[in-house]
């Protein structure tokens, strides 16, 4: 049983054997060499039978570089014990204030305010679409800048902009900051507002401003703010890590669903073809029916009317239930693993 597996395309050797570590005669450690014969490490992979805590102890025992262990922990969803801090003292204080709520009461308060403002902005986005709620958005075709929803949205955007500016100023590595998905979400959350506002100020006509398809899309983009909650929610972080780790299983599920949908949509079309009351007039019509049937939604807007079509529908429903079960154990296993790591119970 391999305790540590380190992969690289370069030639490798297997010189180290420490079966006493796990009382297993097949216990070993994989080492890799570059062209100069120097041992290098690339990617750590934990064998399934080896528990996390034992595997981490093995990495420390074999004196694997701390950087590699940190990368492994990050990929496995552990809470990072390493803080990348700016060298400047005042930047360090700002960075701790914005990124690490557990370091001080002020940082905790800022994190709470950030969550509240994020939730408020999402509620505003939804409520303002209710007919009659935001009728004062325009007065005689002109933008009403005193409208409550506009004022609240402006205040939320000012807070988000302040967050972005402070983080950019204080971050220890500007390039890493820009590459981080969570920070891209922060930037994307404020850009649509400023584009829409500049359009309002330029045209001074809210009807033209709101009717444009591109600007309407920008308003929808504001929904990315919901991802800001991942910074402060362990549950959301676990979900993202789970789906990322389960990608291969999910792709297998999608391929299986696509094949089944294609088969059943074709079968139902030819089975119902020629029936006077048929609701499936083409194979693309059958796509919709097959998707709704296999996912057990069953809208009932398109149904088979012939006996053969009903038999095919029954088989499609049963097949859908079985196909939906493919990713469940994979997702469950990954969720339990990442949840244990994030809550500290997997250390």
UniProtKB/TrEMBL annotation:
Gene Ontology CC, one term: voltage-gated potassium channel complex
A single BP term in Gene Ontology: action potential
The UniProt record lists the keyword DNA repair: no
An example molecular function term from Gene Ontology annotations: delayed rectifier potassium channel activity
Membrane topology: Multi-pass membrane protein
Listed transmembrane segments: 105-130, 150-170, 250-271, 311-332
Keywords: Ion channel, Ion transport, Membrane, Potassium, Potassium channel, Potassium transport, Transmembrane, Transmembrane helix, Transport, Voltage-gated channel
One Pfam family here: Ion_trans
UniProt-annotated location(s): Membrane
UniProt cross-references to InterPro entries, sorted A to Z: Ion_trans_dom (IPR005821), K_chnl_volt-dep_Kv (IPR003968), K_chnl_volt-dep_Kv1 (IPR003972), VG_K_chnl (IPR028325), Volt_channel_dom_sf (IPR027359)
Domain Ion transport intervals: 109-342
Domain of life: Eukaryota
Keyword Transmembrane: yes
Protein name: Ion transport domain-containing protein
Phylogenetic lineage: Eukaryota, Metazoa, Spiralia, Lophotrochozoa, Mollusca
């Amino acid at each position: 049983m391999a305790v540590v597996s380190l992969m690289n395309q370069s030639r490798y050797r297997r010189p180290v054997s420490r079966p006493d570590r796990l009382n297993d005669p097949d216990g070993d450690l994989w080492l890799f060499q570059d062209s100069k014969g120097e041992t290098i490490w690339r990617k750590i992979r934990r064998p399934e039978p080896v528990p996390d805590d034992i595997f981490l102890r093995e990495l420390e025992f074999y004196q694997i570089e701390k950087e590699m262990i940190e990368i492994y922990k990050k990929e496995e969803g552990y809470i990072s014990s390493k803080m990348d801090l700016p060298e400047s003292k005042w930047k360090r204080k700002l960075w701790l204030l914005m990124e690490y709520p557990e370091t001080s009461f002020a940082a905790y308060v800022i994190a709470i305010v950030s969550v509240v403002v994020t939730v408020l902005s999402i509620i505003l986005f939804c409520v303002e679409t209710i007919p009659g709620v935001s009728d004062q958005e325009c007065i005689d075709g002109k933008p009403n800048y005193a409208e409550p929803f506009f004022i609240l949205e402006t205040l939320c955007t000012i807070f988000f902009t302040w967050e972005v500016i402070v983080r950019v100023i204080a971050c220890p590595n500007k390039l890493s900051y820009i590459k981080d998905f969570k920070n891209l979400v922060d930037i994307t959350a404020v850009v649509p507002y400023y584009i829409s506002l500049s359009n309002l100020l330029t045209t001074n006509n809210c009807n033209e401003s709101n009717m444009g398809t591109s600007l309407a899309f920008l308003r929808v983009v504001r929904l990315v703010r919901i991802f800001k909650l991942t910074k402060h929610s362990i549950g959301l972080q676990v979900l993202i890590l789970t789906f990322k780790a389960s990608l291969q299983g999910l792709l297998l599920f999608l391929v299986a669903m696509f094949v089944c949908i294609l088969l059943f949509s074709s079968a139902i079309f030819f089975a119902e073809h020629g029936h006077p009351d048929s609701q499936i007039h083409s194979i693309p019509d059958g796509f919709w029916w097959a998707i709704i049937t296999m996912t057990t939604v069953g809208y009932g807007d398109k149904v088979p009317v012939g006996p053969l079509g009903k038999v095919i529908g029954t088989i499609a429903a049963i097949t859908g239930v079985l196909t939906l079960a493919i990713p469940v154990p994979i997702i469950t296993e990954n969720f339990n693993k990442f949840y244990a790591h994030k809550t500290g119970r997997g250390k």
